[in-house]
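Box 3.1 A note on notation
Throughout this textbook, protein chains are presented in two layers. The first layer is the amino acid sequence; the second is a token string describing backbone geometry. Keep the layers aligned when reading.
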Amino acid sequence: MKRYYYHTPDGELHGPVDVDFLIREIRYAGLPLGLMVREEHSEDWIWVGDAFGTPPEWKSFKEQYAGTEEWMKPGKVWKCGMKPHFNWLFSLLAMRGRSSCWEAVVAYGALLVFAPPIWLACFCGASVWFESLPFGIFFAFLLGLLLLFFFLFCFIALGVRRFHDAGLDGGWLAIIWPVWIALLICFFKGKLLVMSFCWHPVGGIFTGIATLTAPVLFSILLPEQKRKNVYGEPSLNRK
């Protein structure tokens, strides 16, 4: 096992210690994440995150904090390397970073397939649950509306990450989406959605979601940038 020397913030030399000790000291004991270490029997100093066995998440912290006071700030608790229980949910809602074309296709398809039945099940269940209460239908409608906004936000976040992957600002989606909705209202006056819903309610919901989220579908077709851009590194499957 490799062992390393390091300097504390007051300049005192410590070591040699193993990587696990360094990880614990940085996570909980206040050593700076910008710590430089030297391997035993070597004269070269390297950043601790480049040592074998350190959490890969530290590299993302380096991109975010390198060159700032936080990077070398002693006493800051870096609880990195610990995955939150709802990490998948936060990554789905994140508007930072990038999503490749195939990642976006899978996410868009999953949202398109699962969002309508989940919304219907929750709304119908809430209607039955709150039926005996005063204004019960109002609470069911409110729950359905909140869930609808949640799924809409998921679509928006996905579109923003795809724009980032193409090197474009996610704000373009805020321009394209209202224009698209306005065109639907002006040219079709809602007839397409109404006719589809009357023909088949469940199919109409799917058609409505696909139509309203067309700008997100368009973002999937944007060209990908294979290298790092201002929004971060490309996805892991393209490195």
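DSSP finds nine helices and four strands in the chain. Confidence is low (pLDDT under 50) at residues 81-88.
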